[in-house]
Structure formats: structure tokens, C-alpha cells
Design goal:
With about 210 residues, the chain is α+β, with helices and mostly antiparallel strands. The chain has 7 helices and 6 strands; from the N terminus they run H-E-E-E-H-E-H-H-H-E-E-H-H. The chain has one domain: L-fuculose-1-phosphate Aldolase (3-Layer(aba) Sandwich), CATH 3.40.225. This is Class II aldolase/adducin family protein.
């Protein structure tokens, strides 16, 4: 399983390279271990980090997220042009699209430090700004990459609308409730899988 996840990290590096900055970092939780694959997109390969003993530098943010959220299997620290500009518009994006409600969820206020991460992620959302940097989560590496693409698309619509003063229409509360409920079920299932030392199943549908 560990070698399989290392190969997935390499595939994610290629997939995300055209979307986010090259210095963005990606990690994958290794189920059943206090361990992760971690590296930057401009690295040739990831390194295997045991936590908390060998967690240093930027990898501390990744570790703090895994510690706070037992459902998270993959983390992207970095984002595209529009995701990075969210800090200029308050650092929080409301739910505007049904797919956003289903896979990204609620985005709480930015985390100013590693110590604030748990509070910023307590509602189960899969996107947050940490020290001004966009962070995207997923139960698996594939889901995280899809969330990163979705988040950049939503951030583009939001920031352009805010910059131009255009009126934005939020999703009806009941649509958000239903979609977010499905997201919470996915995250509960992922938590159970990781507790058993398994990789959660992929969920590409709505």
C-alpha cells in the first residue's frame, strides 16, 4: 500500500502541476501508520515522514491537518491564481454552487497559525486559508485533486464577481443541507476506513 501511494503522489504531481504553483506541497496519509508521503510539486519524488518525530517546516501544517481530521487522506498546500487571491476578499468563499456544497463544503475563517487549524476545519470543510495560503483536502488523492480543480473554478467566479461588484446568488439552504449531508457521510466512511488501515473508496459521483 505504501508503494502504491508513492506512485499516486507522483501522478498527482503531474496532474496538479498546471493548476497550482510549483512550490505547492502535497501529502498522502498512509493508512494504518503514523506516516505520510510528502513533497513539493517541483521535487523529483516525495519523502516518507513519520509523525510527529520527523515533522518539520511546512510538513507540520500537513501533520496538523491529519491530526485534526481523521477523514482526510490527502492535502494540497497551495493553489491556483484565483484561490490565492481569496485573501484579498476576506479569505472566505460562500457556497455558490451545488457541486461546491457537495465536495468542498463550508469554508470557515482563515487560520492564522498551525494552532488554529483544528478550529478552522471543525465543520468538515475541504478548503481553508492557512497563513494566507489556500489548502485543499480530500479523502483520497484523486478526490483532493478534483477538489482543487473545483475550488479554483469556484474561486474564479467568486473573486471576479466581487471585484466587479456583480450580485451573487447563494444556494438555497436546503440544497446546501442535503449536499453537505452527503459530504459528511463520505467523511465518516473515510474515517472508518483509515481506522481499519484501509484506503477509502473513490467517490466521483454526486
Amino acid at each position: 500500500m505504501q508503494d502504491l501511494l508513492r506512485q499516486q503522489w507522483l501522478e498527482l504531481r503531474q496532474r496538479l502541476s498546471g493548476l497550482v504553483e510549483s512550490r505547492s506541497s502535497v501529502s498522502l496519509r498512509i493508512p494504518g501508520k503514523e506516516r505520510m508521503w510528502w513533497g513539493r510539486l517541483d521535487d523529483a519524488a516525495p519523502i516518507c515522514i513519520d509523525w510527529p518525530v520527523h515533522v518539520m517546516g511546512e510538513s507540520q501544517t500537513h501533520h496538523a491537518i491529519y491530526h485534526a481530521r481523521a477523514d482526510v487522506g490527502a492535502v494540497l498546500l497551495g493553489g491556483g491564481d484565483f484561490a490565492r487571491s481569496l485573501g484579498d476578499f476576506g479569505g472566505v468563499m460562500p457556497i455558490l454552487f451545488d457541486e461546491q456544497a457537495r465536495h468542498i463544503g463550508h469554508m470557515d475563517g482563515p487560520a492564522a497559525s498551525v494552532q488554529d487549524i483544528a478550529a478552522a476545519l471543525q465543520r468538515g470543510g475541504n478548503a481553508v486559508l492557512i497563513k494566507g495560503v489556500p489548502v485543499i483536502l480530500g479523502t483520497t488523492g484523486t478526490r483532493m485533486a478534483m477538489n482543487a480543480q473545483l475550488f479554483e473554478k469556484c474561486a474564479k467566479a467568486f473573486t471576479l464577481a466581487k471585484a466587479s461588484g456583480a450580485k451573487m446568488t447563494l444556494l438555497p439552504w436546503w440544497v446546501v443541507l442535503v449536499a453537505n449531508g452527503r459530504l459528511m457521510k463520505d467523511e465518516k466512511r473515510a474515517t472508518q476506513c483509515f481506522a481499519r488501515g484501509e484506503i477509502p473508496p473513490e467517490n466521483r459521483g454526486y
